[in-house]
Write a structure and sequence with these properties.
Layout (H helix, E strand, L loop, with lengths): L2 E6 L5 H10 L3 E4 H7 L6 H10 L12 H8 L3 H24 L7 E4 L14 E6 L2 H12 L3 H9 L4 H7 L2 E4 L4 H25 L17 H16 L6 E5 L13 E7 L8 H9 L2 E3 L21 E5 L6 E7 L3 H15 L1 H17 L3 H26 L4
Parallel strand pairs: 1-3, 1-4, 2-3, 4-5, 7-10
Antiparallel strand pairs: 6-7, 8-9, 9-10
Helix pairs in contact: 1-9, 3-5, 6-7, 12-13, 12-14, 13-14
């Protein structure tokens, strides 16, 4: 089942996107609705709010004065943290209950305003952020919700910035224009990414790129995409002594690359990756083990193959092709993946040389596997250069 996190700043129009996803078949768990339910009269969080913030935030009929409470907490970060400490556990328990009951053949959407602020996006397969210009959001809050301009700006300032949301966003929906434009964006997302991703997860189908050799120009978005994969894998494997790194060409700024995010998962012992719990956790995160892909090309060519063993997983997301390389921490293969990346980052001439080689070989080899094989002689020579560089600069992983 595909898990989707949906978020956006106050006034961004997130509810519009949630309604569209619900209309097309997703089950949407609304964190705001849950937050209202857990502070109804008779619920323990309401009593705790009264004790912390006083009787003035409770109306004559015993219900919460939400506007009055908001006026207290949004301008005051300490008060906002105190409120979240009261309501957060109750909301989390109820959300877990609701999402646990979503049928396996439906897409599970979590509509959560603070998904980025709380770091909860790492538990979702896809994070959708709905955005709009700050002035548009202020106008909506003033015109549609009756807030004062100062209150609207204070609420916006209390939330994550657009920069923070962009870093977490797999998909950014621009909701600053017409409803028709927003609907078209969401429809494409639903048809081209969410539905196929869900089908891949349920059918255990790996998303694959074309076998045709295609190099993309450097994309600044690769760094954030890699960081999101790293964060999600780390969250999926807590307490297992792992190290997760963005590697490969998309981890090197300014380098042409196939549009594939490569991530290395370091484990204390390679046998740890063969434990049933490890494979299950990685699959739950959206990655499938590819049987038989368990050996890297050793460097130099006559090196012991055992130092270059690995496990390989492919992602299920058709909108972002990801390869996971699981290697033993301290092995030659694990160390070279990191040192080669850092060498290219630090040495412009090496980066330019590698880029030229990639372009030349891509022009000569139209099939990806032939292109990859043709690079190996260069890698054998580069391995020695990387080792020398590592000694000179006293590089450590």
């Amino acid at each position: 089942m595909l898990r989707v996190g949906l978020t956006g700043g106050i006034g961004s129009g997130k509810s519009t996107v949630a309604a569209l996803l619900r209309e097309w078949g997703a089950v949407v768990t609304d964190a705001d609705r849950v937050a209202r339910e857990i502070v109804e009269p008779g619920m323990p969080p309401l009593a705790a709010i009264r004790e912390r913030f006083g009787p003035n935030v409770i109306q004559a009929d015993g219900t919460l004065d939400r506007a009055g409470l908001a006026a207290v907490v949004f301008p005051d970060p300490e008060a906002l943290r105190a409120l979240e400490a009261i309501t957060g556990p109750a909301i989390a328990d109820r959300v877990a209950q609701l999402r646990g009951s979503v049928p396996v053949d439906r897409i599970d959407v979590y509509d959560m305003p603070l998904l980025v602020e709380k770091g909860l996006w790492v538990h979702e397969h896809v994070t959708i952020v709905v955005g709009a210009d700050a002035e548009v959001r202020v106008a909506r809050l003033v015109g549609q919700r009756g807030l004062s301009e100062s209150d609207a700006r204070a609420r916006i300032a209390a939330q994550a910035s657009d920069t923070q949301r962009h870093a977490a966003a797999d998909v950014w929906i621009d909701n600053g224009g017409s409803r028709e434009d927003t609907q078209a964006q969401v429809r494409r997302l639903w048809d081209e990414r969410l539905v196929p991703f869900d089908a891949n997860l349920r059918g255990a189908i790996r998303a694959r790129r074309s076998d045709t050799t295609t190099l993309a120009e450097p994309d600044p978005g690769w760094a954030d995409a890699g960081a999101r994969v790293v964060a999600r894998i780390a969250a999926a494997l807590p307490g297992q002594g792992i190290r997760v790194d963005h590697i490969g060409s998309t981890s090197v700024p300014g380098l042409v690359a196939k549009d594939v995010v490569d991530v290395q998962v370091g484990v204390p012992q390679l046998a740890d990756a063969d434990a049933s719990g490890f494979a299950a956790a990685v699959r739950q995160a959206g990655y499938l083990l590819v049987a038989g892909n368990d050996q890297d090309h050793p460097h130099p060519a006559d090196a012991a193959p055992g130092e270059w063993q690995k496990r390989f997983y492919g992602g299920c997301d058709p909108g972002r092709i990801v390869h996971l390389h699981v290697r033993e921490i301290g092995s030659a293969g694990w160390e070279f993946a990191l040192s080669f990346r850092d060498w290219l980052r630090a040495e412009p001439s090496a980066r330019e040389e590698y880029a030229a080689l990639k372009r030349e070989l891509a022009a000569r080899h139209s099939v990806t596997r032939d292109y990859s094989a043709a690079k190996e002689p260069w890698f054998d020579a580069a391995y020695q250069r990387v080792q020398e560089w590592a000694r000179e600069v006293r590089w450590t992983p």
